[in-house]
Amino acid sequence: MTDPACPAPSLARLLPGVAGALGVEGWEEDAGLRLGRWPRVCTVLVDGLGARLLAERGGHAPFLRRATAQQPEGAPRELRTTVPSTTATALATLGTGCHPARHGVVGYQGFRPGTDEVVNHLTWPADLDPLRWQPLPTVFERVRAAGVPVLMVGPRQFEASGLTRAALRGPSYVAAESLEDRVEAAARALRAGPRAMVNMYWGDVDKTGHARGCGSHEWAGELERIDAGLARLRRLAPDDAVVLVTADHGMVDCPPSSRLDVADHPHLRTGVRAVAGEPRLVQLRTEPGSAEGVAAAWADVVGERGTVATVGQAIAAGWFGGEPAPDVLARVGDVLVAAHGDLAVVDRERDTPGVLQMVGHHGSLTDVETAVPLLRLLPPRAR
After folding, report:
1. DSSP states of 104-160 as a string?
2. CATH number of the domain at 256-361, out of 3.60.15.10, 2.40.50.140, 1.10.10.10, 3.30.1360.180?
């Protein structure tokens, strides 16, 4: 699924590890994560801040660069996110502590079982009950039930969204729009009582990467901004709190010249009933009995620029983190196309202008997309 030469703990272990670090009854410390014991923990998820991007562009993040050098000896500095390496799937894994094969949020888009209807896990259909679609309890719910205050700091538009209710339910939600306001809200939450599990989300690094590319000056500017914001959060946080920085995925710039446009290869539509997923990991719902033929046709066009697999092959390779239950399996495409390099699969006759104009993409199983940071921002006394 990912580069075996770079083993790292799964993102699924992070919040269970935080519960153990807080000493919550029923949770054990994750010795492999090396988080230590703290009465207050703030986890910050910076959408789109892949570990490789942070390393390559670390000159724009002096605070995080110093923090990287100050990590405890032997402590992992990276986690592995989900495949698909996309926000909805990664947030569900973060929130539940389970892999996609269990929680069932199988990509940016998946299929409604028994139909060809595409379910967008970010916009969320109005008639789809988030608690039925993703019924597993979240780590937040379980920690809160144990008596520890749990708070989420994020944009107001996410407070009651389908994805929040499916993947991140449980915390008291504090709505704040600007980075400055979120930092102050997170710091206040940490100081509000003797114990706290605080979680903060920031999405502008990802937005800028999609619009301008992660190699752009604008992306570097966003990295500088979140770097300064995290430095401020560490200054405002109490001395008995640790701030953990991670991400949901990395990103790859895919210029127009590197795209595979299905409209230029209309035979790729033969045997395909519906398309879900995203440009870096396409999911194809096929006509009965045609999956092998569809996979062969796509493999012939994609060549070495990607991996084309039937759903059985993808599951055997560990893409979804295990063997899905039948209801989860029914949400996944019959054939999957995972991009390598800077390939993006688009269809100018189907995709929205917003998708066609994107520069940065993610979703596939490359190291750049699946390696995310795990940085412990320690108080001065603990460094």
Report:
1. ---SSEEE-TTS-PEEETTT--TTS-HHHHS-SPPHHHHHHHTT--EEEEE-GGGTT
2. 3.30.1360.180
Average pLDDT over residues 281-294: 98
What is the end-to-end Cα distance of the chain in Å, rounded?
35
Predicted confidence at residue 381, as pLDDT, reads 74
CB 21: neighbour CB atoms within 10 A?
A: 24
Residue type, 65: R
336's enclosing H/E stretch is strand 335-339
d(CA 197, CA 327): 32
CATH 3.30.160.20 for domain 11-252+366-382, yes or no, is: no
Look-up of token digits 């000159």: 59
pLDDT digits (tens, 9 = 90+) for 297-328: 999 999 999 999 999 999 999 999 999 999 99
Residue 325 neighbours by CB under 8 Å, 6+ apart: 101, 102, 104
Report how far residue 14's alpha carbon sits from residue 33's, in angstroms, rounded to the nearest whole number: 8
Identify the burial level of 312 via C-beta atoms within 10 angstroms of its C-beta, where 0-12 means exposed, 13-18 middle and 19 or more buried. exposed
User: In the chain, what are the domain boundaries?
Assistant: 11-252+366-382, 256-361
Q: Which pairs from 26-35 meet CB under 8 Å and 24+ separation?
A: 26/142, 26/146, 27/143, 32/76, 33/9, 33/75, 33/76, 33/374, 34/72, 34/74, 34/75, 34/76, 35/242, 35/244, 35/376
Residues near 68 by Cβ (< 8 Å), separated by ≥ 6?
A: 58, 77, 373, 375
- From CA 112, how far away is CA 119, in angstroms rounded? 6
